[in-house]
Every structure is written in structure tokens, then in C-alpha cells.
Amino acid sequence: MLVRAKRRFVSIIAVAALLTIGPALADKPSGSLDRAVPTEITGIPIDFDRDHPERKAFGKLIFRGGLSLYAKTSYFGGYSALAVDPSGNALLAVSDAGTWLRSTIDYNGRLLKGLSHGVLGPLLDKDGKPLADDAERDSEGLTLIDGTVGGGTAYVSFERDHRILRYPFTAASFGPPDGALPLPSETKKMDANRGIEALAAIRTGRLKGTLVAFSERLVDRNGNLKGWLIGGPTPGPIALKRIGGFDLTDAAPLPGGGIVVLERRFRYSEGVKMRIRRIAEAELKRGTPIEGETLLEADENLNIDNMEGIAAHRSAAGETILTLISDDNFSPLQRTLLLQFALADTVPALAGPPRAP
């Protein structure tokens, strides 16, 4: 109990620094990279339940490995959004310092092992130069429109200067953007530091061609989180029930349809929490507020940090794998964590969601 109490105290101090005096403590690069550079990434294995490492079942998920990530460059960190290749063998992340990270994901069987062949590079402005102004480069959302993480087209959302840009990218460059989406009029009410955090481009099924976008904390008169279906067959506003005071930090399309959303909550009395909800395709519609299905809720007694990015892919065995990344805000008090889970109801050996001990 003493260890957990100390852990909670450290977590509360760290996240409090993030929310109050974080900018003063953080060592965020003053400018962006000028080109893509190979970067060695060290991944230290971690357990999700540090006190019971043998435990693998959490809510409706199965833990498949975690890493605490480090690199010897000031440009590594601040990751707010994530995409994983359909093969599950590579990732792409964007940072609130105006950079991108691409890396191979290494496995030991089904278990997350490490990252290799890392590359860091700058997000480019429309003039082809790296985003350098701090008010312009705060990228928060990422979703692939076509291609894979090695090359294709993506939407990226930014806060402070709220916008969603369309980026063509290759293995060596990201941009310049070739267009911008008109934002819904309600986004004018978003706080500067709480913009469109979650993007999920639907590439299959009834909603093919739809971009699902959610703000971090903008709510309607009933307290529901505001979101939008942009493009596709049924565009318009949607609402996600705000449960327990959580904010939205990311979303990702699921291989079998629908999306998952990642949420975060901080209170001085309890530290930081995270939650993952699954939303069926049929729920993504105007009118009735969306509730979804809670897959996992965790606090700092489990191995989490400021979890901000989520991606989903289908493994060769047919399992739906969720990958999460944390935003360390370039603070020495926080960590860049990479976590992987399998959806229990897609694991062939399980008849249904496991019972957590």
C-alpha cells in the first residue's frame, strides 16, 4: 500500500505540472527539425500491473506488452496521435512539437518487443518548410485516408490555430499539405488548448469516406462531448456521452467497423485515469447521444501516463490489436509509453471477455 501511495503522489505531481506549470518545466524544442533523421529508440519492457505482472486480463482486453521509450534527441516526445500499419509491423505518430515519428514494431511471437528503424522528421507547412511557430505546430490528431504508414495521405488536426490539414506523405517526408477541411461553426467555441483531439477516417462499411472528429472538451447544453461526421453519406453533428468527467484524447477506426475512443481524466485527489470505449458503426449517427461500450478503465495503480494516442489493426491471427502511446509533454516528470492490448472477444482461444482476478 505504501508503494502505491507513493506512486499516486508522484503521478499527481507529474500531471499537475502538466496542467498548470508544465510549459515552464518542459523542454519542448524551440524549433522543428529541418529534415528526416534516423533515430535509435530504446524500449524498456514494462508490465501493465506492476504489482502482479502475471495478470494479463484487464476489463475486456488482454495485455500484449508495454514499453517505456527513450531516444537521445530533444525532438523525441510529445506524441498526441498514432497510426499503425494494417500489418501491425510499423507505426506513425505526430508530436505537439511539429514532428513525426515512424518506426518498425518488433514482436516476440504475439508480444510487443521493441521499436527499430526509427526516423524523426518535420511536419511541413504549405510553403514546404517545417512548421516552426509554436502556435502553428501543435498537432493533436492523425488518421490515414489512404495508403499505409510508409506512404499515403493523412488528415492531421492542430490546436491553438484550430485546423485540419490534408497531408500527402512518404517514408522520408510529411507534406506539404495539399488542402484543409472547413471546420464546423461550433469549433469557434473551442479553447485554444482544447481543440480537435480525435480523428478517425472510416475506410470501409456504411460510413466509408466519413471523417469522425471529436473535440477534447467542447460540450453541448446537456454536457455531451461534441463531435462531427465530416463527408461521407450522413455528415453532421454527433454527441458522445461524457461519463465521469473524462475528456477525449484520440479515436481510431476498427478493422471490423466502428471506432474506439481514448479518454483521460485528472483530479488532484486521485491522479490520472484513462478509459477506452468501443463505438459500433450503427451508433455513429446524428440524434441520440452515443454511449459505446467501455473496454477498459485504469488509474495510476496500473502502468499508465498521459495516454493520448490510440490505433487499431487486425493481426495475422485475426485478433483486433489496440496500440496506445502517451504524451510526455517533453517533461522529465512524465514518460513516453507504448502499450498493446488484444480485444478479448477477437482472441480465438477465449469464449468471451475474461474475468480479471
First-residue to last-residue Cα separation = 18 Å
Note the run of SSEs as H and E.
HEEEEEEEEEEEEEEEEEEEEEEE
User: Helix coverage percent of residues?
Assistant: under 10%
How does the major sheet shape up?
A: 6 strands, antiparallel
Number of helices: 1
Spans of at least 5 consecutive residues whose pLDDT stays below 50 are 17-25, 351-357
Folded structure, characterized:
This protein has 357 residues and is mainly beta. It has a single domain (2-346), classed as Tachylectin-2, Chain A. It has one helix and 23 strands. The strands form five sheets. Strands 2, 3, 4, 21, 22 and 23 form a six-stranded antiparallel sheet that branches. Strands 1-8-7-6-5 form a five-stranded antiparallel sheet, with no helix packed on it. It has a four-stranded antiparallel sheet with strand order 9-10-11-12, with no helix packed on it.
